[in-house]
């Protein structure tokens, strides 16, 4: 038997009001699921066949107790451990380059060590794109980073003291960590 549909096509149901009880349950349970993408503010362009991987490599963190709660709920509902595992792919957005799979198995973080931008890509800025879903194909969503500026390798003659160490900065909402080619600053 087909489901009965009421209302006009494309008409949305009225929004549900947030009740005090629903807010209390949320504050008590706190099933937050946060995706944090840490990356440098700049990425050096690759030339020819070389691949200048992003340094430091972008990192994706899954934060909040909701990830564990969702996994447990899916397994109670009959999903296997593999089906309840979040999967992620990362790419440089709007590019011919394929997205790369991230290894999240059993962890709440992963690193994209082989991302690069080629010289055929003429963009001056781009955003990382992280596509996430569960092992059973349930979609989680697509998450974009902040803008990353593309820089080319400066000529040795024009290289100033200011950019000699290629200092790169991780972006977060509340913290900045600096790193250069030789290690921490």
UniProtKB/TrEMBL annotation:
<dbReference type="InterPro" id="IPR040159">
    <property type="entry name" value="CLS_fam"/>
</dbReference>
<protein>
    <submittedName>
        <fullName>Recombination signal binding protein for immunoglobulin kappa J region</fullName>
    </submittedName>
</protein>
<dbReference type="GO" id="GO:0001228">
    <property type="term" value="F:DNA-binding transcription activator activity, RNA polymerase II-specific"/>
</dbReference>
<dbReference type="GO" id="GO:0005634">
    <property type="term" value="C:nucleus"/>
</dbReference>
<feature type="domain" description="RBP-J/Cbf11/Cbf12 DNA binding">
    <location>
        <begin position="34"/>
        <end position="165"/>
    </location>
</feature>
<dbReference type="InterPro" id="IPR037095">
    <property type="entry name" value="RBP-J/Cbf11_DNA-bd_sf"/>
</dbReference>
<dbReference type="InterPro" id="IPR015351">
    <property type="entry name" value="RBP-J/Cbf11/Cbf12_DNA-bd"/>
</dbReference>
<dbReference type="Pfam" id="PF09271">
    <property type="entry name" value="LAG1-DNAbind"/>
</dbReference>
<dbReference type="GO" id="GO:0003677">
    <property type="term" value="F:DNA binding"/>
</dbReference>
<dbReference type="InterPro" id="IPR008967">
    <property type="entry name" value="p53-like_TF_DNA-bd_sf"/>
</dbReference>
